[in-house]
Amino acid sequence: MEGGRDDHVLSRLQRQQLHHFPSVHEGLRLGDGLLRAEERGREFPPVCLMLWHHRTSQKIVPKPSFIVDGVSRFDFGQGSVGNCWFLASIGALTFQDFILKQVVPLEQTFDEDYCGLFHFRFWRFGKWVDVVIDDKLPTINGQLIFVRSKDLTEFWPALLEKAYAKVCGSYSDMNAGTPVEAMVDFTGGVHMSVQLSEPPADLWELMCRAGQARSLMGCGTPQGETSANTVLPNGLVQGHAYAVTGVREVLSRAKAERLVRLWNPWGQGEWSGDWSDRSPLWQTVSPQDRETCLSVREDGEFWMTLQDFCKFYSDLDICCSCPDFLDGSSSCRWKSSFHEGRWVAGISAGGCMNHPGTFWTNPQYRVEVGGCADSQGENNMLVSLMQKPDKRNRRLVQNLHIGFSVFEVPKEYRAVRGKLPAAFFGRSKPEAQMDGYTNAREVMQLLSLKPGEFLIVPSTYSPNETASFILTVLSKAE
Questions:
Q1: Identified catalytic residue from 54, 119, 191, 240
Q2: Catalytic residue among 83, 264, 362, 380
Q3: What residue numbers bound the domain in which 473 lies?
Q4: Do residues 195 and 82 share a domain?
Q5: Do 202 and 232 belong to one domain?
């Protein structure tokens, strides 16, 4: 097992450079020996592990660069771990410079004051953390095993992937996921999910506003009969994550066509139907639209109609630090509140409303809904519930089924301090609640509530399940 750098072996220059890092995530040592030991032992055939070597960037290429000619989704392609969900999120991230600079400090370099260390920032369960790594990367026969840049001298994608593998526990802990997980970790924001089998009537307007805001958008195709990423005759990949990289309306044969642009993180493999790169339909639009939109090359990016997008994709996730994009012309703004809590078996883990004898023991949070005039009859609250893991390795985390219920607090109970008693819940019906309890890292729901005081009760589905959580509430205000 190859060792990593620990505090006591850092050079003076390395120590000086670390003074520029605001913090280091608790439990994530500066040295990467733990990461290298864990990443080897699972899911990779023994014949691969025998050939596996960690090399510094300068031993992979003579003159490495952190970034070459800017940052783009076309810089890289997926490697030998099933983390298309993470790479699709990076593709979306490259469109938002402000967020990108938070996650990937762009001033880092292999040149001046290079000390062998790089750092990245992620929002992890309620706080921003700096993750510091060295530049040793896993290789076989001198070639990178995981994400690799198309310009072999550029290393920001491989180093970003290594930093995220560190917070997950190992590279193999990144296997399988959804883009929203990484998008939340990139933004510290909230997300909304859209089931494309039953899309909202204003889906197009929603995507257009999200594209204009500081939002990240990702989506996925339905899983096939097996877990394999089968390439369909139309070019799409089953059970695969994509980034949404643009929306545009064009005029074709005197008819408006709503188009969605998508990117495959494999860096190749594209849709072959209507409005694909070589579709004759591009000859029906203006030369200006054709020049702006069409790029005939095998880069994994393509256009399709909104109708086909809803037909062939299963879900869309939009992630943003503030859900202003939900409103078309509202003068209201969103205010947020953030709560950390814990369900403790036998004390505060009462389960869902199917358990009336213990439901009231769950944590309770009161919120005020204002009377923003523009929001009458519209969604005016977004509630997000995220459970915090109790394991270091992502693959070992067993998400509980979680959800929440929202009750209006009548006048006679507004002066009551502490938890409302079982009697209240015995005669009160929730104003809103989750459609179902889900074993996901995070669940959210948009609500339409009248002005007043409300009580949010987050819970697990079954009683006596211990776990920590984060409750985020955003509500409209004048």
A1: 240
A2: 264
A3: 331-477
A4: no
A5: yes
- Do 355 and 464 fall into the same domain? yes
Query: Of 83, 84, 352, 401, which one is the catalytic site residue?
Result: 84
What is the tally of structural domains in the chain?
3
- Asked if 253 and 290 sit in the same domain, the reply is yes
On whether residue 307 sits in a domain, the answer given is yes
- Same domain? For 120 and 206 the reply is no
Nearest to 30 by CA among 117, 104, 107: 117
- Assess if residue 239 is contained within a domain: yes
Per residue, the 3-state secondary structure of 394-429, as one string, reads HHHCCCCCEEEEEEECCHHHCCCCCCCCHHHHHCCC
Residue 25 among the catalytic residues: no
Residues in the chain: 478
Structure tokens at 28: 């994530």
- pLDDT tens string for the chain (478 positions)? 222 323 333 333 333 443 443 433 333 433 455 455 444 444 444 444 445 567 777 777 788 888 888 888 888 877 777 788 888 999 999 988 889 999 998 888 888 778 888 999 999 998 899 999 988 888 888 788 888 888 888 889 999 999 999 999 888 888 888 889 999 999 988 888 899 999 999 899 999 988 888 899 999 999 888 777 788 999 999 999 999 999 999 999 889 999 999 999 888 888 999 999 899 998 998 998 888 888 777 788 999 999 999 999 999 999 987 777 776 656 677 888 899 999 999 999 999 999 999 999 999 999 988 776 555 557 888 999 999 988 888 888 889 999 999 999 998 888 888 899 999 998 999 999 888 899 999 999 989 898 889 999 999 999 999 999 999 998 887 6
Is 240 tagged catalytic? yes
Q: Copy the structure tokens of residue 169.
A: 């526990």
In sequence order, what are the residues at sequence separation of 6 or more whose Cβ sits closer than 8 angstroms to the Cβ of residue 342?
348, 363, 466, 467, 468, 469
Quickly tell me which residue has 């290594």 as its tokens: 162
CATH number at residue 217: 3.90.70.10
Instruction: Let me know if 339 is a catalytic residue.
Output: no
Residues 227 and 297 in one domain: yes
Residues 146, 292 within the same domain = no
Distance CA 277, CA 280 (A): 9
- Specify the amino acid at residue 341: G
